[in-house]
Amino acid sequence: MYPDLAGKPAIVTDASKGIGKGIAERFGKEQMNVVVDYHTDQEGVEDTARPSGSNCCSGCLACIF
After folding, report:
1. Which DSSP category does 7 fall into?
2. What residues pair up with 34 in beta bridges, in sequence order?
3. DSSP labels, 9-63
4. Number of domains present in the structure of the chain
5. Which of 1, 38, 40, 49 fits 16 for a cystine, CB–CB 3.0-4.6 Å?
6. Is the pLDDT of residue 61 over 60?
7. Is the dihedral of CA 45, 49, 51, 56 positive or negative?
8. Per-residue pLDDT, 19
9. CB-based contacts of 20: which residues, under 8 Å, 6+ apart?
């Protein structure tokens, strides 16, 4: 949708749920290089970073635990 974002870096904090998760997933769909972070919900952020179907963060490079 926004080809100029492809390959750009992004750091998303609290990406395990809510707005942070949505932002990380959207950046991933834009093929950005995403680093995600969380505070307490490790399973949630792993779900965000795991490519699985259309709601994935396929561009995620790393999860900071």
Report:
1. T
2. 10, 60
3. EEEESSTTSHHHHHHHHHHHHTT-EEEEE-SS-HHHHHHHHS--TTS--TTEEEE
4. 1
5. 38
6. no
7. positive
8. 94
9. 12, 13, 14, 36
Q: Is 51 exposed, middle or buried (0-12, 13-18, 19+ CB in 10 A)?
A: exposed
Amino acid in the structure at residue 8: K
Quote the DSSP letter at residue 4.
Answer: G
Query: What domain range is 16 assigned to?
Result: 3-64
Contact 38, 15 (CB under 8 A): yes
Say which amino acid occupies 65.
F
Q: Which residue has the tokens 């790393």?
A: 62
Residue 51 has pLDDT above 70, yes or no: no
Residue 56 has pLDDT above 80, yes or no: no
